[in-house]
Amino acid sequence: MNVESSPQSTEPIVEQITPYLRREWFDNRQIVVFDIDNVIRETVDKTYALMQQTMIEWDLNRPYLAINDFATSHAALSPYAQKQLRQIRMFRPELKGYVAIVMPSGIVTSVIRIFVRTSPGIRENEMFPNREAAFQWLRSKRPVK
Question: Are 23 and 17 in contact (CB under 8 A)?
Fold first, then answer.
Protein backbone atom coordinates (compact mmCIF):
# COMPACT_ATOMS: atom_id res chain seq x y z
CA MET A 1 0.00 0.00 0.00
CA ASN A 2 1.26 3.44 -0.89
CA VAL A 3 0.05 6.13 1.53
CA GLU A 4 0.40 9.56 -0.03
CA SER A 5 -0.55 11.72 2.95
CA SER A 6 -0.19 11.61 6.73
CA PRO A 7 -3.11 10.85 9.08
CA GLN A 8 -2.66 14.23 10.82
CA SER A 9 -3.08 16.09 7.54
CA THR A 10 -6.33 17.79 6.58
CA GLU A 11 -5.66 16.59 3.04
CA PRO A 12 -7.18 13.27 2.01
CA ILE A 13 -5.17 10.15 2.73
CA VAL A 14 -4.80 8.10 -0.47
CA GLU A 15 -3.82 4.42 -0.42
CA GLN A 16 -3.04 2.92 -3.83
CA ILE A 17 -4.04 -0.74 -3.38
CA THR A 18 -3.67 -1.83 -7.02
CA PRO A 19 -3.39 0.13 -10.27
CA TYR A 20 -7.22 -0.03 -10.42
CA LEU A 21 -8.20 0.39 -6.77
CA ARG A 22 -7.61 3.19 -4.28
CA ARG A 23 -8.91 3.76 -0.77
CA GLU A 24 -9.15 7.42 0.18
CA TRP A 25 -9.92 8.89 3.60
CA PHE A 26 -11.59 12.30 4.05
CA ASP A 27 -12.75 14.48 6.96
CA ASN A 28 -10.28 13.07 9.49
CA ARG A 29 -11.07 9.48 8.45
CA GLN A 30 -14.82 9.91 8.91
CA ILE A 31 -15.55 9.18 5.23
CA VAL A 32 -13.90 6.44 3.19
CA VAL A 33 -13.90 6.37 -0.61
CA PHE A 34 -13.27 3.24 -2.66
CA ASP A 35 -12.17 4.49 -6.09
CA ILE A 36 -12.63 1.57 -8.48
CA ASP A 37 -11.31 1.91 -12.04
CA ASN A 38 -12.48 -1.43 -13.47
CA VAL A 39 -14.72 -4.34 -12.55
CA ILE A 40 -12.66 -7.33 -13.64
CA ARG A 41 -12.84 -10.27 -11.25
CA GLU A 42 -9.45 -9.58 -9.61
CA THR A 43 -10.41 -5.97 -8.86
CA VAL A 44 -13.85 -7.03 -7.58
CA ASP A 45 -12.17 -9.54 -5.21
CA LYS A 46 -9.64 -7.01 -3.91
CA THR A 47 -12.36 -4.38 -3.50
CA TYR A 48 -14.59 -6.80 -1.57
CA ALA A 49 -11.69 -7.78 0.74
CA LEU A 50 -10.74 -4.14 1.30
CA MET A 51 -14.34 -3.16 2.09
CA GLN A 52 -14.60 -6.05 4.56
CA GLN A 53 -11.34 -5.04 6.25
CA THR A 54 -12.47 -1.42 6.45
CA MET A 55 -15.83 -2.40 7.97
CA ILE A 56 -14.21 -4.72 10.51
CA GLU A 57 -11.88 -1.95 11.65
CA TRP A 58 -14.63 0.73 11.71
CA ASP A 59 -15.62 2.04 15.16
CA LEU A 60 -19.21 0.97 15.93
CA ASN A 61 -19.76 4.28 17.75
CA ARG A 62 -19.57 6.14 14.41
CA PRO A 63 -21.82 5.69 11.38
CA TYR A 64 -20.12 4.00 8.46
CA LEU A 65 -19.86 6.67 5.73
CA ALA A 66 -18.55 5.37 2.41
CA ILE A 67 -18.44 6.25 -1.25
CA ASN A 68 -18.07 3.54 -3.89
CA ASP A 69 -16.80 5.53 -6.87
CA PHE A 70 -17.28 3.78 -10.22
CA ALA A 71 -17.20 7.03 -12.24
CA THR A 72 -14.11 6.06 -14.26
CA SER A 73 -14.71 2.31 -14.48
CA HIS A 74 -17.44 2.32 -17.14
CA ALA A 75 -18.90 -0.30 -14.85
CA ALA A 76 -21.46 -2.87 -15.69
CA LEU A 77 -22.33 -5.24 -12.90
CA SER A 78 -21.41 -8.76 -13.92
CA PRO A 79 -23.23 -11.58 -12.14
CA TYR A 80 -20.07 -12.10 -10.05
CA ALA A 81 -19.89 -8.41 -9.08
CA GLN A 82 -23.61 -8.48 -8.20
CA LYS A 83 -23.04 -11.48 -5.91
CA GLN A 84 -20.16 -9.71 -4.14
CA LEU A 85 -22.20 -6.52 -3.82
CA ARG A 86 -25.08 -8.44 -2.22
CA GLN A 87 -22.67 -10.02 0.27
CA ILE A 88 -20.96 -6.77 1.25
CA ARG A 89 -24.34 -5.07 1.71
CA MET A 90 -25.18 -7.66 4.39
CA PHE A 91 -21.69 -7.80 5.94
CA ARG A 92 -21.31 -6.78 9.59
CA PRO A 93 -24.99 -6.01 10.31
CA GLU A 94 -24.20 -4.26 13.59
CA LEU A 95 -22.39 -1.52 11.61
CA LYS A 96 -24.98 1.11 10.72
CA GLY A 97 -24.33 3.80 8.16
CA TYR A 98 -24.65 5.11 4.63
CA VAL A 99 -23.07 4.25 1.30
CA ALA A 100 -23.05 6.60 -1.69
CA ILE A 101 -22.48 5.03 -5.11
CA VAL A 102 -21.02 7.33 -7.77
CA MET A 103 -21.74 6.45 -11.40
CA PRO A 104 -22.26 8.67 -14.42
CA SER A 105 -25.78 8.81 -15.83
CA GLY A 106 -26.78 6.30 -18.48
CA ILE A 107 -28.75 3.15 -19.21
CA VAL A 108 -26.36 0.90 -17.27
CA THR A 109 -26.65 3.22 -14.28
CA SER A 110 -30.45 2.98 -14.44
CA VAL A 111 -30.26 -0.81 -14.31
CA ILE A 112 -27.76 -0.68 -11.43
CA ARG A 113 -30.01 1.79 -9.58
CA ILE A 114 -32.85 -0.78 -9.73
CA PHE A 115 -30.47 -3.50 -8.49
CA VAL A 116 -29.31 -1.33 -5.56
CA ARG A 117 -32.86 -0.37 -4.55
CA THR A 118 -34.19 -3.93 -4.70
CA SER A 119 -31.24 -5.73 -3.05
CA PRO A 120 -31.46 -6.19 0.71
CA GLY A 121 -28.87 -4.33 2.73
CA ILE A 122 -28.02 -3.16 6.22
CA ARG A 123 -26.86 0.34 5.34
CA GLU A 124 -28.79 2.97 3.38
CA ASN A 125 -27.54 3.33 -0.20
CA GLU A 126 -28.01 6.18 -2.68
CA MET A 127 -26.64 6.75 -6.17
CA PHE A 128 -25.09 10.02 -7.35
CA PRO A 129 -23.67 11.28 -10.67
CA ASN A 130 -20.57 12.79 -9.01
CA ARG A 131 -18.52 12.80 -5.82
CA GLU A 132 -19.58 16.30 -4.78
CA ALA A 133 -23.22 15.24 -4.43
CA ALA A 134 -22.17 12.03 -2.66
CA PHE A 135 -20.04 13.96 -0.14
CA GLN A 136 -22.85 16.43 0.51
CA TRP A 137 -25.28 13.59 1.27
CA LEU A 138 -22.83 11.73 3.53
CA ARG A 139 -21.83 14.85 5.43
CA SER A 140 -25.51 15.51 6.15
CA LYS A 141 -25.65 12.06 7.81
CA ARG A 142 -22.87 12.72 10.33
CA PRO A 143 -24.01 13.05 13.94
CA VAL A 144 -24.24 16.60 15.26
CA LYS A 145 -21.74 17.22 18.06
Answer: yes
Does a structural domain hold residue 46?
A: yes
Q: How far apart are CA 82 and CA 78, in angstroms?
A: 6
Instruction: Give the whole-angstrom CA distance, residue 16 versus residue 141.
Output: 27
- CA dihedral 116→44→35→102, nearest 10 degrees, is -20
Domain count, the chain: 1
Tell me the C-alpha distance between 65 and 24, whole Å.
12
Task: Name the burial class of residue 41, with classes exposed (0-12), middle (13-18) and buried (19+) by CB atoms within 10 angstroms of its CB.
Answer: exposed
pLDDT single digits (tens) 22-79: 999 999 999 999 999 888 899 999 999 999 999 999 999 999 999 999 887 665 667 8
For residues 17 and 130, give the distance between their C-alpha atoms in angstroms, rounded to a whole number.
22
Residue 99 located in a structural domain: yes
